[in-house]
Structures are given as C-alpha cells and as structure tokens.
Amino acid sequence: MDGFGSGEETRVVVVFDFDKTILDCDSDNWVVDQFGLSDTFRQLLLTGTPWNTLMDQMMSEIHSLGKSIGDIADCLRKALLHPRIASAIRSAHSAGCDLRILSDANMFFIKTILEHNGLMDCFSMIYTNPSFINESGRLRILPYHDFNKSIHGCNTCPPNMCKVIN
C-alpha cells in the first residue's frame, strides 16, 4: 500500500543539489580559486578533459604545492553556507523529512562542509562522486560512473552529472 488514505504516514523525501544550493558557491571552483590555481584550471578546462578527471588533476596540482588534505579541509570550512539554508535543513530534518543530496561535487568536499556546519546527520543519502585519500596523502576524485570503462546506459545526462543507480 502506498500510504495515501491508508492511515499510514507518508514520509516526504527532499533532494538537494549541493553546489550553489546548499553551498552559496561551487565547491570545486572555491577550492581551485582559494589555492590560486584558476589559470591552470581554465587551461585544463579548454582541453575537453571530463570534469571529474579535471578536478582530480587539480587535486594533484594542490598536492604538488605541498598542500595537505588538512589544508583542503580548512579551505572548505571557509566556504559560505547561508544561515537560512542551514536552518531550513535542520527544520525539515526535525519535521521528519528524508533529506538527500544529489550532486556533481565529491564526497570529501560535501562531508567536510556538512560536518563543519553540523548538518551531516540530517542527510540519509548522498549521491555524488567518490573520493578517497591515497597512500601519499593526496585527495583522489573519481566519477560516479567510470565512463572510461563502460557506458552506464543513461542517454539523458552528461556522464559526469548522471547519478543513475544501476
């Protein structure tokens, strides 16, 4: 039964984008700009490199500057989140809504910002690009679907934006 008219409570699911929605800016551009790599980023962007691959390359550039994962996290903690957005998220969560994020950012950026703002526990699911810290301490960013290995079957979205679950 679907819960409508059955006496069962239906839970409201609210799906947020992250960049320029929860966060007032684009987290990728924020980090690139804060580390003074905007020109390098623009040059690489002109090569047609897929966005996620480009951001992985930018993390390599940041690492080569001697910056640590802690430096990146500190940078992310300075990104602005509007107080009304934080309040709305908390209100929706406390009202029982199931909050989720669907984003082309990456897990490290999103988790760092949400944890800093005390919002991580408000979200039940985050669909975004995976990231991890490798053995040399560098942040690696991967696409949600590895479009270099196989096509995931979605003809609606660009490969880096699609978060269709197979």
What does this structure look like?
Mg(2+) binds at residues 17, 19. GO terms for molecular function: metal ion binding; phosphatase activity. It holds the Pfam family Put_Phosphatase. Substrate binds at residues 28, 104. Its cofactor is Mg(2+). With 166 residues, this protein is an alpha/beta fold. It has one domain: Rossmann fold. Helix content is 37%, strand content 16%. It contains six helices and five strands. It has helices spanning 27-34, 38-45, 51-64, 69-77, 83-94, 107-116; strands at residues 13-16, 98-106, 123-129, 131-133, 139-141. The strands form two sheets. It has a three-stranded parallel beta sheet with strand order 1-2-3. Strands 4-5 form a two-stranded antiparallel sheet. The two termini are 25 Å apart.
What class would the helix/strand composition place it in?
alpha/beta
Order of helices and strands: EHHHHHEHEEE
CATH domain class name: Alpha Beta
Low-confidence stretches: 1-7
Report the C-alpha radius of gyration, rounded.
18 Å
Percent range of helical residues: 25-40%
Q: Number of helical runs?
A: 6
What's the CATH architecture name? Answer: 3-Layer(aba) Sandwich
- Total count of strands: 5
Looking at CATH, the homologous superfamily is: HAD superfamily/HAD-like
Mean pLDDT over the full residue set: 87
First-residue to last-residue Cα separation: 25 Å
* β-strand amount: 15-25%
Task: Kindly report the spatial arrangement of strands forming the biggest sheet.
Answer: 1-2-3
What best-fitting shape do the alpha-carbon axes yield?
globular
Number of self-contained structural domains: 1
